[in-house]
Amino acid sequence: MGREPDIVKPGASGDTFAGKRVTVMGLGVLGGGVGVCRYLVSRGALVTVTDMRQEADLREPLDQLKGLPVTLRLGGHDIDDFRSSRADIVVRNPGVPYDSPFLLAARADGVVVEMEMSIFFRACPAPVMAVTGTKGKTTVSALLGEIVTAWRSYALLAGNMGVSALLELDRVERDTPVVIELSSFQIEALIEHALAPHVAVLTNISEDHLDRYRDFAEYSGVKRGLAHAMTEDDVVVYNSDDPEVTRIVAETRARTVPFGRAEPRGNGAWLAGGRDLMVRLDGAVHHWGRPGVLALQGDHGAMNALAAVAAAKSYGVPDDAIAIGLARFKGVPNRLEQVAVIDGVGYVNDTSATAPAAAIAGVRVLGARSRTLHLIAGGADKRTDLAPFADEIGATNARVYLLEGAATDSLHAMLEERSAMIAGRFESMAEAVRHAAAEASAGDIVALCPGCASFGMFRNEFDRGEQFRIAVEDVKHRVAPALPGTNLAG
Fold it and tell me: What is the CATH number of domain 337-478?
């Protein structure tokens, strides 16, 4: 079912930006803004970077731009940098809302508004596999990346994971397998410019980012918008157990391949006997053993594995490459990442579980594998409903260590209502980990599974995860480590 384009897509030559005045709105700290700037300069654009933050807050990305002919306007935005008098194109950071007054002014003045992903999708000469969802998208993307790399070693994995797709564009050929992880923010640009991948994967949709969108309906619609511009030659791999996701069947022209717990009547993927990953395409059935890695355990892990193998087969990846990729996969940093086992206590970093649904999935997997789960949770408010997360915690054997943040008061009250064990509230990761480690014993797990955003106490979710790792290293230096080879996946 794989497809290769007959011609290189428009824009691949890079002539689109030669001599153009481009305002990059929001440099960011995760590499995307730097990648955009370097790409635009290499294509002959006249680049102006504008960011609300001061130079001291952007030291690392600014160091990466040293020597480039880029104009910097930091500490605020000037509306004229977005109007046609100074700009032909505006490229916005995913963190900038679609309806920012500066972007509205640009569009009103006839200035084209792009994002890294709209530029990449338009210029990429190879068919793209794109993965999105409220939870699981990074694990599915990473597993897909492992699989396609086993098939063709020059495959590309990029997107919402700290790898700039644009900086990798020059090495992409027509036969390069391309896997891109997409957040809802990044999909907004694809919707605006009617762009789409060849294979789209929708893992699930639940409440998230309601601090950005009007309501859940808008957020859900953006996620499904990934498939709106797809054609009959394209494929949507979707979670048939998720009602919000299944709405995509009526919203796209693409062929659909469901995955879920039950065996479908036609094309689709399912789990047989709790251990075999099954895919049926055009009458042919393919199967592989489910890996034992922690990130693919539980119902959620099984769905992630099924999504990846179904997408790989839909893209045309051979069965043997899929088997090799599955065997090589060791999980993903920041997502049910086993950091250490110390004196029989496991330490797991699930910092990317910023949505309640993702945190619930983590608690279910870890709670079943621990005598007592010592759960570090709480943080910044995303206007999501934390009640289901509190329900899950109350129903398991968890002892909770709350990180301070705008959402923590609400979560604390919900946990008290459910008679959950609350160890206290902590103003640093080091303090929370130290207290959890002191109370944990062999057979327990200490896990960062927050269910909330990171902003306030941390720069971002990745900084939060790194601080967890550092705190665990401090614990390791204080006590003797467990025997090598201990694995929580069991």
Answer: 3.90.190.20
For residue 15, pLDDT over 80 is answered with no
Residue among 448, 447, 479 at smallest CA distance from 461: 448
CA distance 241 to 384: 21
Q: What is the pLDDT of residues 367-400, one digit of tens each?
A: 999 999 999 999 999 999 999 999 999 999 899 9
Domain boundaries, the chain: 19-114, 118-328, 337-478
Partner residues linked to 99 by β-bridges: none
3-state secondary structure of 353: coil
108-144 confidence digits (pLDDT tens): 999 999 999 999 999 999 999 999 999 999 999 999 9
- Using CB atoms within 10 A of its CB, is residue 288 exposed (0-12), middle (13-18) or buried (19+)? middle
Query: Could you give the CA distance from residue 395 to residue 377 in angstroms, rounded to a whole number?
Result: 16
Nearby residues of 221 by Cβ (< 8 Å), 6 or more positions away? none
Percent of the chain, pLDDT > 90? 88
160, 167 in Cβ contact below 8 A? no
pTM of the model: 0.87
What would the two tokens of residue 272 be? 């047989």
Q: Look over the chain and give the mean of its residue pLDDT values, rounded to a whole number.
A: 93
Instruction: Please report the pLDDT score of residue 399 as a whole number.
Output: 98
What are the angstrom distances between the C-alpha of 206 and each of 17, 262, 298, 392? 38, 21, 18, 16
Quick one: three-class SS letters along 37-59? HHHHHHCCCEEEEEECCCHHHHH
Q: How far is CA 27 from CA 38, 47, 95, 456, 462, in A?
A: 12, 12, 10, 19, 17
DSSP string covering 60-80: HHHHHTTTS-EEEEESS--GG
Instruction: Please say if the pLDDT value at position 2 is more than 60.
Output: no
Q: pLDDT tens digits for 398-438?
A: 999 999 999 999 999 999 999 999 999 999 999 999 999 99
CATH number for the region 19-114 comes to: 3.40.50.720
CATH number for domain 118-328, candidates 3.40.1190.10, 3.40.50.1820, 3.50.50.60, 3.40.50.1760 = 3.40.1190.10
Give the count of beta carbons closer than 10 Å to the beta carbon of residue 395. Answer: 13
E strand map for 138-267: 156-159, 178-181, 199-202, 235-239, 255-260
Topology alike, domains 19-114 and 118-328: no
Widest Cα–Cα separation across the chain: 66
Q: Which two three-digit tokens encode residue 444?
A: 């327990």
Closest to 337 (Cα-Cα) out of 483, 468, 221: 468
